[in-house]
Amino acid sequence: MSSSDILAELDTLLAERRQASPEQSYVARLHAGGPAAIGKKVGEEAAEVIIAGMSPSAEGLVHEVADLWFHSMVLLNHHALDASMVLAELQRRFGVSGLEEKAARAAEGK
């Protein structure tokens, strides 16, 4: 199974669990808290990635990045977006210098 297939399956699962009872589903509970609660969780996971990145443990870093991706996908789902949109944006940037891309965003006021 390809990485994009895994992300698509996770998108489907997140959409299903969003409709579940918050008492029965962690994802539904996150959605019940709204974008601020989900964003707070994304921030916590990002901090854990930073901490794990300073450790020599590859396993710990991979685990924390998986948590960050998962919670980021919950936030995308909350806004009716999905991983395919992020993959398309990454594909759009492929072959473009990071410095050029950043300069273009600055020129657009982003």
From TrEMBL:
GO terms for cellular component: cytoplasm. GO terms for biological process: L-histidine biosynthetic process. Its main location: cytoplasm. Its EC number is 3.6.1.31. Pfam families: PRA-PH (PF01503). It is found in: Cytoplasm. It is an enzyme of class 3 (hydrolase). Pathway: Amino-acid biosynthesis; L-histidine biosynthesis; L-histidine from 5-phospho-alpha-D-ribose 1-diphosphate: step 2/9. NCBIfam families: histidine_hisI, PRK00400.1-3. This is Phosphoribosyl-ATP pyrophosphatase. It comes from Abyssibacter profundi.
